Structure formats: structure tokens, C-alpha cells
Amino acid sequence: MACLGSRLAIATIAVSFALVLPAFAQFAPPPAKPAAPKATAPSPRAASCHNGASFDRFLVDVKQQAVAAGVSQRTIAEASPYLVYDQGIVNRDRGQRVFGQLFTEFAGRMAAPYRMQNGQQHIKQYAAAFARAEKEYGVPPAVIAAFWGLESDFGANMGNLPTLKSLVSLAYDCRRSEMFVHETIAALKIIDRGDLHPDEMIGSWAGELGQTQFLPVHYVNYAVDYDGDGRRDLLHSGADVIGSTANYIANGLKWRRGEPWLEEIKVPPNLPWEKTDLTVREPRSTWAQLGVTYPDGRPLPNDNLAASVLLPMGRFGPAFMAYPNFAAYTEWNNSLIYSTTAGYLATRIAGAPPMRKPTTPVAQLPFNELKELQQLLVRAGFNVGKVDGVLGQQSRAAVKAMQIKYGLPADSWPTAELLARMRGGTAQAQPQTAVR
């Protein structure tokens, strides 16, 4: 969902995943139902993890697993015309392009005022369903609406590819075969229990479905019938989308009822930067003693509510207090830019003011230098994931460790000075004062 976080294990800070959405109308007409897709020749290399079995032989085994999991033969027959291999889907998966982007740029576009206003309008339009979801699951309407807006612009952009074809193609490919076999069987269960017909299952190339982009396993486990029509329809029913998303956030992502998720803060120039990390939680009273305040200077509550200081662009960029509920965002999508944007958009829908802009531009290493820094971090013994010039959470952790080693402000933001130190150079960056 955009659960492309831990669920799809997509690049840690990938932000290209078709999220550059225009300001769609509130509801676009549903895509025309496509004819059953025609099979294409499977890729010989993909069969290596299936003991050389052809796609057709592999598919027989998947169908047998589905039947063993309780899927009826009727559903297997109904879905079979759509269970075809598409090398284009595999190529798309293997060729995902990721790029680094400043949080302020991404959030400025994705949490734009029109999307905030659209979220507020949907909360009014579906007031009864949102109230019911908050009562039953403890998830605030703004949290649901923010994911709804980011994932599909409230149903306007859910994808246009046959889901079963996408799933079974990725299941045959060796990169994440086991995961997508389970997702294929889950999609068949969705059909079997009468929620969707095969020709209705249209979504993203990665097999996600509906207005908040559920993978089929999550659809099976968390979708609920909130409009009372006997179906769990996350493509067409706004009420079902609201109830199901709340159920997933509450029970799948372990939302803590009545607690905040993200708040903008102001940090002092002498904050112990090594403590600014999602893995470090301190009571708000401790952060208050260290000089952290709200943006307008108001003090933080003097209580024991645990929180982390999150600096998505280092000590000179925006600063947030991330509460335990923020873990639901990083579980939904482990890209820090996406998860922080989703949390921030939810605060805006709930009535928070826009975040303050940095007083001076925040310097960002060019792509090639960031990639070089990752290579140097690998040589130093750190696991940064893929060396791709993208600042994912593993890279951020490694940057912080090296900043501590060199006695630099450990705010996890890569700088020219850190790169020079790791190259063995003597260049020193001019000291800056964090004026916020």
C-alpha cells in the first residue's frame, strides 16, 4: 500500500512509484473492463527457481495450492483466463527507478492544499462511516483520509492493469516468488468469497487493489463490508474503503487509540543530535528540558509520552516529534519521505498549520556524491542496502554512525564535510547555526 513498504520491500526511499498525481477530480469513471488478457511467452530465466518448470507447469502447482487453501474449482476456472504471464510486468518490477528528493519538495507537492481540502471534504461526505471507524478502531478520520488521498486521490487513480496477470507474473519471477504466490492465492480468495469478479480486479502493476491500494493478502485479512451490501468492495465503495483502511491501520499496523502521530517542532541549535533518531524515544518532558518547543515557541507538555525527534533533512530542515503511532506510517511504506509526508498530510487535514520552511536552503549532495558516500560506508562495514544514490533509512543510520565517529553533528544528513572526511580529505565545512 503504498504499502510498498515492508510489504513489497521496495527501495527504502523510493518516491517514484507513480505518486506524481495531478489534481484529479474527486471521482473518475471506473476503467472499462478489459478482455481476458492473452498469454505471452514466459521468460526462460524466471524458471530457475522453479526447477526449470515452464510457466504453465508452475501455474498448475499454484492452482493446486489455491484449492488446498480452500479456493473452489469454480473460482479457479473463472480466473484462469486472467492467470497469464506478462514479461512486461516483470521488466517493470526489475527496472524500478528510484531517486532522491528533498522532503520539502515531495511534501509540498503531495501534501498540497488541494489534497488537504479534498480530504476534509471526504470526511464531511462520509461523516457517518468515518465516525463509525473512529469509534470501532480508534483511527482518526484525518489519518484514513491522508492515505486515501496519497494512494489514489480518493479513487481517481487506482491503476489500470489486470491484477491477476500482475500477481502471477511476479509469482513466476524468482525475485519475490513466494510472496507473490501467496498474493495470487489471496486474490483468488477475494473472488471466491464474492467480493470482486476477475474482470473487476484492475490495479497497479504490483498487484495492489482499491482506493487505498491493498495487497490481496491485506484485502483478505482486513477488508470489511461497511455499506452492508454483502461485499467488501474497495474499488467502488467509499464506506468499505474507510472501514477497511481503519481496520488495517488499527489491527495490522497496531495503531494506539487516542495518541498523536506527528507534530512539527522547533529544535535548538545545541540539541544532542545523536538523539534525533526514530530508534531513540524520550519522554516529552525530556525533550522540553533540551530546548525543544512547538514552532511558535510554546513549550511541549511536561509529560511522559514517549516521542522521537525526526529530522528528514537534517538539523537545518523541518523538524517533527514522531510518536509511537508514526510506526504505522513507516510500516505502511518504509520510505521515510513518503511516511513523513503521509503523517504530515494527516495533520494538515486535521487542522494543523503548514510547516515552517527552512530559513536557508538545505544543501543536498548530488546523486553521484551520495552514491560515492554509500560506497565508502559499505567499505567501512555498514549495510546500506542497495548502493543507489538514494538516502534510505539504512544509509541514514550509517551516516549517523560516521558523524559520531568524526565528531560531527549526528543528524543523519549526509554533507560534503562527511564525504571529505571519509575520502580522507581535509576539507572542512563552514560551521552553520541552526536558526529555526
From TrEMBL:
Species this protein is from: Bradyrhizobium agreste
Annotated Transglycosylase SLT domain residues: 55-346
Domain (Peptidoglycan binding-like) spans 369-422
Which keywords describe this protein according to UniProt? Signal
What Pfam families does the entry give?
PG_binding_1 (PF01471), SLT_2 (PF13406)
The signal peptide here is 1-25
Query: This protein is called what?
Result: Lytic murein transglycosylase
Task: Kindly give the SUPFAM superfamilies that the UniProt entry links to this protein.
Answer: Lysozyme-like, PGBD-like
